[in-house]
Amino acid sequence: MTSPTTNHTTSQTGDYTAYVSADGAGWMIDIPALSRVTYAAHLRDVEDTALDLIAIMTGSTPSASDLTIAWPEEIESALTTINSAKQQAELAQQRAMDTMADAVVQLKSSGQSYRDIGAVLGVSHQRVAQLLNSRKPAAEHSADVGQQDHAARSA
Three-class SS of residue 129? Predict the structure, then answer.
């Protein structure tokens, strides 16, 4: 089963659309392409129940990619808001990593050690090396690895 926050109408292009609506304590699932309606006792069961109905009516084994779930507006709105927030968080995380990598390059170019940079930035000296290597061209990377090996043997 997939999470509603990653499997909803805006990210699906399936062969079947299941229109979901509240029905007492459960959920009605209308699949017009089959001219059938089914019921799920719990919201978490909607996708599996719809796929089961498709399988029974068609004799096939459908996957989640064959199904588009059209959630009620209040659920769809919440899912859209959640997905937007997740995307913003991922972008913010990437910006933070880019900023940290830029700081590593700047501190290293000023002669600071991996351990000192790590201590200032709150990461391990190994992470400092990874961030630095992610910003260096290949020629600089191989020269720096040689320096690291020499420093390790000297320590």
Answer: helix
Instruction: Note the Cα 93 to chain centre separation in Å.
Output: 12
Going residue by residue through the chain, which has 155 residues, state the pLDDT in tens, using 9 for 90 and above: 444 444 444 334 569 999 999 999 999 999 999 999 999 999 999 999 999 999 999 999 999 999 999 999 999 999 999 999 999 999 999 999 999 999 999 999 999 999 999 999 999 999 999 999 988 764 454 455 555 555 555 44
Cβ contacts of residue 112 below 8 Å, gap of 6+?
Answer: 120
**Burial per residue of 100-134, b for 16 or more beta-carbon CB atoms within 10 angstroms, e otherwise:** bbeebbebbeeebebeebbeeeeeeeebbbebbbe
Separation CA 34–CA 136 (nearest Å): 57
What gap in Å lies between CA 24 and CA 50, rounded to an integer? 18
Joined together, the tokens standing for residue 6 give 């990653």
Q: Which CATH architecture has domain 9-71?
A: 2-Layer Sandwich (3.30)
